[in-house]
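User: I'm putting together notes for a lab meeting next week and I want to include a structural view of one of the chains we've been expressing. I don't have a solved structure, so I'd like a prediction I can at least talk through. The sequence is below, exactly as it appears in our construct file.
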Amino acid sequence: MPKGYWVSVYRTVSDPEKLAAYNKLAAQAVKAAGGRTFVRGGRVVAHDAGIAERTVLVEFDSFEQAVAAHESAAYQEALVALSDGVERDFRIVEGID
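Assistant: Thanks for the context. Below is the predicted structure for the 97-residue chain, given as structure tokens.
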């Protein structure tokens, strides 16, 4: 069964305090849902139309698990804390089996 991934690229961070509150809650929600964070920030080299900003990569055992984690009450609480603190591109993608 292919794994599922959350891929987030942050275009801007307008409120670092909201991002910090989100990070705390989101880390707990991801862990509770069985997710593993492989990338959170760090160095980025962007090519083509890419954005060289904060990037996050989280792996789940399946695509369905990744979708369910996003829909969970715990993660929805994290999104409320984040609200308008960032502009980002967030995707849930299916890996290759």
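A couple of points you could mention at the meeting. The two ends are 6 Å apart (CA to CA). The mean pLDDT is 96.

User: Perfect, that's what I needed.
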